Amino acid sequence: MIDLKTSLLAIDVGRGTQDILVYEPGRSIENSIKLVLPSPTVVTAEKVRQATRAGLPVFLDGHLMGGGANTGAIREHLSRDLPVYATPEAAATLHDDPERVRALGVEIRATPPGDAVIVRTTDYMKQEIRQALSLFGVDYPQNVAVAVQDHGYSPHRSNRIHRFELMQERLDAGGWDILSLAADPPLADMTRMQAVRHQAPGALVTDTGPVALIGALCDPEVRRMAKTGVTLVNAGNGHTLCFTLKGREIHGLFEHHTGALEPEKLQRYIRRLADGTLTSEEVFDDGGHGAAISKPLTTDAVVVTGPNRLRLLPEAYQAAPFGDMMLSGCFGLAYLWKVFRKA
């Protein structure tokens, strides 16, 4: 299902880890170079915490990146009455509205004060990955594909609503085909994706949730189930995305925060998604993003991938494309590279 004519570096950037595949033509995927490393947000957070322990100011310099551990560390730093400065682009990591960033206590400025610890903000850790590969004599591939989760530019309204509206718009425009959720190039509104593309011109940059489920379809058993109808779940560290799918057509989907889900609640959502009664308001009011349904799809086949799969759906089929669940997103990126770039 994945047979590229060119080498490819696929990076799936999550909340806890960044999962990396180096695809080389002629080498089986099972024997390809694979890395599961701390996510950029985790790396950035630790650098901020080091400055906090040293009692030093922090200057955020770089690109817009995803939040999570880093924003938590920055808030903790500020709570200790320690200064935080940021360039305008790096400040967007904290919020799309600069006034909201300033309200947190962050000073937005172009250059750092002399005593500040400079902390680089980026979702694309090219320098570090290149160095890691070079230690083992591995060349850095010219072709790059990256997945990040992007809520879209939404300075004055809920980014949960905005993200889900964008997903539904793409589905409507693409006939509810699963590939319609992985536009190449990404929408201009997807500022996190655009920040990665700025650093990696020519890269395929798309969303983490759909690519993990596209990657799960590389599992032959999952492809078989999808022919007649299947519920696909990506239980990530930050978000859980669920599709009902037949062939490549999505019948319904919802997205929630993984930390807010327990097995019983997730099963209830899955049942109501399948019978077409789950509402977007219900998911949003529960702290999630939303739901959208084109038509019901009754099926007993449930497939799960992602690092929280056993906690949330231990009885479901555990998708392991090419024998490696943690690389589902990377396999999805490689598949999309083949489809979109005709490689």
From TrEMBL:
Pfam families associated with the record: DUF1786
Protein name: Uncharacterized protein
Source species: Methanoculleus chikugoensis
